[in-house]
Design goal:
Blueprint (H helix, E strand, L loop, with lengths): L1 H15 L5 E3 L12 E7 L4 H11 L5 E8 L6 H8 L3 E3 L8 H14 L4 E4 L8 H6 L4 E5 L11 H7 L4 E8 L9 E8 L6 H34 L1
Helix pairs in contact: 2-3, 2-7
Bound molecules: 5-O-phosphono-beta-D-ribofuranosylamine.
The site of 5-O-phosphono-beta-D-ribofuranosylamine (GRF) has 15 residues, from helix 2, strand 6 and helix 7.
């Protein structure tokens, strides 16, 4: 059984994705929109996705401006990246708030104060409440390290390994009340190799996250600009 599984995995990896990752839907044309979209980024961790969004803007791949990085964790490395690139940031520590509602309210106030148009949860380890979700309907997106709807919630990479799937990946989706469940914008499939550790797999998934998140932002921003024009 073990052997069968190994053979099956190898066939899937080498004949299917040929050892490579796959992005869907893939559009080689740049999503053009104007003027720049005003982004608010929410992060709790290393901020590699945050940094990559900054680089995409600097390389003219993304017509955007980051008005604010909001972090809930005063020790997160994303802050260092904000300092490095001179991006305004604010710490809204949930531990200083009496309730989830109060924390959400402070986050929402900041986003509205800066007229943020699109909110990107880039490693935001908090569940956001309905008020933010409703205020930012179709303008609040999240990146998750699995091929949703598989492996929702925390430890998605470990869940994929434990379940012995042969392909996992990452997903950018709209945020809804239920965790990791809104409609999917873009996904990247990443084969799990026989010799993968959690760390090697995480690295390959993150490489794909860094590709699909700017693509998703551009796609949603284009929708925002288009519906804005339609409503005029
Ligand atoms: C990413 O793997 C993302 O999918 C998950 O949290 C991680 C954040 O990584 N939601 P980073 O902080 O952007 O490096």
């Amino acid at each position: 059984m073990q052997q069968d599984n190994k053979e099956y995995r190898e066939k899937t990896i080498f004949n299917g994705l040929n050892g490579h990752s796959l992005i869907s839907p893939f559009n080689s044309e740049k999503q053009l929109f104007d003027p720049k979209i005003n982004l608010g980024i929410l992060a709790s961790g290393n901020g590699s996705n945050f940094e990559n969004i900054i680089k995409s803007i600097q390389n003219n791949q993304l017509n955007a401006k980051i008005s604010i990085l909001i972090v809930n964790n005063p020790n997160c490395l994303a802050i260092k990246k904000a300092l490095k690139y001179d991006i305004p940031y604010v710490i809204i520590n949930h531990r200083d708030c009496n309730s989830r509602l109060e924390h959400d309210k402070l986050v929402l106030e900041k986003l509205e104060e800066l007229s943020v148009e699109l909110v990107v949860m880039a490693g935001w380890m908090r569940i956001v409440g309905e008020e933010i979700i409703n205020k930012f309907k179709d303008r609040l997106i999240n990146i998750h390290p699995s091929l949703l709807p598989s492996f929702k919630g925390v430890n998605a990479i470990q869940q994929a390994i434990d379940n012995r799937v042969t392909i996992t990946g990452c997903t950018v989706h709209y945020v809804q009340k239920d965790v990791d469940s809104g409609s999917i914008i873009i996904q990247a499939a990443v084969p799990i190799k026989e010799q993968d550790s959690k760390e090697t797999l995480r690295k390959r998934i993150q490489n794909m996250e860094h590709i699909i998140l700017p693509l998703a932002i551009a796609k949603v921003a284009k929708n925002i600009r288009t519906s804005f024009k339609d409503n005029k």
